[in-house]
Design goal:
Layout: E1 3-7, H1 12-23, E2 27-32, E3 47-50, H2 56-63, E4 68-71, H3 78-83, H4 85-106, E5 110-115, H5 138-157, E6 161-166, E7 168-170, H6 183-193, E8 197-200, E9 206-207, E10 209-211, H7 212-223, E11 232-235, E12 241-242, H8 243-254, E13 260-263, H9 278-284, H10 292-302
Parallel strand pairs: 1-2, 1-4, 2-3, 4-5, 5-6, 6-11, 7-10, 8-13
Antiparallel strand pairs: 9-12
Helix pairs in contact: 1-7, 2-4, 4-5, 6-8, 8-10
The structure holds nicotinamide-adenine-dinucleotide and uridine-diphosphate-N-acetylgalactosamine.
Nicotinamide-adenine-dinucleotide (NAD) binds next to helix 1, helix 4, strand 5 and strand 7.
């Protein structure tokens, strides 16, 4: 049994990770400012520290005595980083550096969330980790910054880490309520209310949607493989799905005929995002094997 710190543990991906760790018998401390996370999702017995990841003292105290840190706290919305550039930077990069710095003092390995947003628009698909990063938004730039600082943490301060470039994660518990929420949670919410689904742009932009349970498997396997070389791995399925197809699949699952409408393309929106899962599969011996139709059905039924 180990003791883990999970930043952002009250959020969507974090709460699934915390549930799995507790189920495996581990002790878990969560550090979360509850800006988008909720206390109710935390299992009994989990210690919650309500604090900001940019608060060096709080993070260092939370990290004392833990065996590993999963750093997931962030403002996870690309669109919000367009609107609040400096504000999201403080959380998404300063918060991560604060976590690496505390890990240095406490000698703790860090598994952290990067993002497919670091790739921007790539010509060669599916995207492998060797592709040249080309972020199009502050969110993507800050996630790339996290990877660079993870490298510094390893090279200069001997902090072992593993970074995960999550593609588009979906599953039960994803909050649909903000205008920045993940597309699948938004579409499910619209269908439930009998309201039209809105496609930004022509709807033919593609994403590599990965089920949250598969993401948790990667995170846990990654903790055992963190190293001072600061490796980064894609977390994806290798399958591309257009936003239009997601809309029609969800309408079919729900037996709904809500309208599909169109709105302008979002600034900085990525056209095609499909990752290669090869390196993660080779290195961690895990595979994202939940088919989209099954994952969407679980997600729809859980709402
Ligand atoms: P989420 O918003 O559900 O969870 C983020 C959590 O971090 C929330 O509980 C929130 O309260 C907390 N938080 C935010 N700012 C904080 C701060 N300053 N201090 C402490 N806690 C803070 O988002 P999620 O979808 O679970 O994302 C988890 C991680 O995965 C993030 O780092 C995100 O950037 C990354 N990611 C998510 C996706 C996706 O598709 N959901 C894709 C790529 C990367
Ligand atoms: C997601 C993640 C982000 C990041 C990135 C990786 C969320 C909320 N964001 O950004 O954290 O890591 O992936 O590349 O999960 N759309 C519509 N209608 C809607 C909502 C969205 O058409 O009502 C479109 C949107 O314009 C985009 C696509 O759906 O083309 C996906 O949007 P998103 O906000 O779910 O996620 P994305 O890819 O911008």
């Amino acid at each position: 049994m180990a003791h883990y710190l999970v930043t952002g543990g009250a959020g969507f991906i974090g709460s699934h990770l915390v549930g799995r760790l507790v189920g495996q018998g581990h002790r878990v401390t969560v550090l979360d400012d509850l800006s988008s996370g909720r206390v109710e999702v935390l299992p009994r017995g989990v210690r919650l520290i309500v604090a900001d990841t940019a608060d060096a003292q709080a993070v260092s105290e939370a990290m004392a005595g833990v065996d590993g840190c999963f750093h997931l706290a962030a403002i996870a919305s690309v669109q919000r980083s367009v609107e609040d550039w400096a504000g999201t930077h403080r959380v998404n990069l300063t918060g991560a550096i604060t976590v690496f710095d505390a890990a240095r003092k406490n000698r703790v390995p860090v598994v952290y969330a990067s993002s497919a947003a670091i790739y921007g628009n790539q010509e060669v698909l599916p995207i492998a980790e060797t592709a040249l990063p080309a972020p199009r938004t502050a969110y993507g730039a800050d996630k790339l910054g996290c990877e660079l600082h993870a490298r510094v943490a390893g090279l200069v301060h001997s902090v072992p880490s593993m970074g995960f470039r999550f593609f588009n994660v979906y599953g039960p518990g994803q909050d649909p309520s903000s205008p920045y929420s993940g597309v699948i949670s938004v579409f499910i919410d619209r269908i439930r209310r009998g309201e039209p689904i809105v496609l930004h742009g022509d709807g033919y932009q593609t994403r590599d949607f990965i089920y949250v349970g598969d993401v948790v498997q990667h995170l846990i396997a990654g903790m055992g493989q963190a190293s001072v070389e600061a490796p980064v791995l894609n977390v994806c399925t290798g399958q591309a799905t257009s936003i239009r197809s997601v809309a029609t699949l969800l309408r079919d699952i729900a037996g709904s005929a809500v309208d599909i409408r169109f709105a302008p393309e979002r600034p900085g929106d990525i056209r095609a995002s499909i990752g290669s899962p090869r390196r993660a599969t080779d290195r961690l011996a895990v595979r994202a094997d939940t088919p989209l139709a099954i994952g969407l059905t679980h997600t729809f039924q859980a709402v």
